[in-house]
Amino acid sequence: MDIVLRGIAIYVFIYVLTRVVGRRELSSLEPFDLILLIILGDSVQQGLTQDDYSVTGAMIAIATIAALQVSTSWLSFRFPRLRPVLDGEPIVVVEDGKPIERNLKRERLTIEELMEEARMQQIASMDEIQWAVLENSGTISFVKKS
Fold this sequence. Notes:
A four-stranded antiparallel sheet has the order 2-1-3-4. The chain has two domains: 2-86, no CATH class; 91-144, 2-Layer Sandwich (CRO Repressor). Helix 1 packs antiparallel against helix 3 (31-49) and helix 1 crosses helix 4. Helices cover 60% and strands 12% of the residues. It has helices at 2-21, 23-27, 31-49, 55-78, 83-86, 101-106, 111-120; strands spanning 91-95, 98-99, 129-134, 140-144.
């Protein structure tokens, strides 16, 4: 039972941590980010199983985290009012060719990063953009002006 409670605590901590870190950072993993995730995984394992190195303990921990993930997904699906809390909401960062500074600052996104994403979608200037939306996944969707 101790492993299950630890699993719940770790899951909630990691879930909150990923929401705080931000969707933009999680969408593009740099080598340093990958190393950090590996270290984080090892640290979580130590806190999750403590001195229990048994296969059963590992299976209980994994099953607990998997059940929590499925439960979170089900809650998001079943109760639409929880979606903004659990999944976040898309955020408009450009409207009619003008960046929305408040939303860019909130998501720690620079104009340069925004334009880099635009260029990757063959958009040369901000004037060509009707809307740019930072999606829940961390990607930016662009709608060109007609």
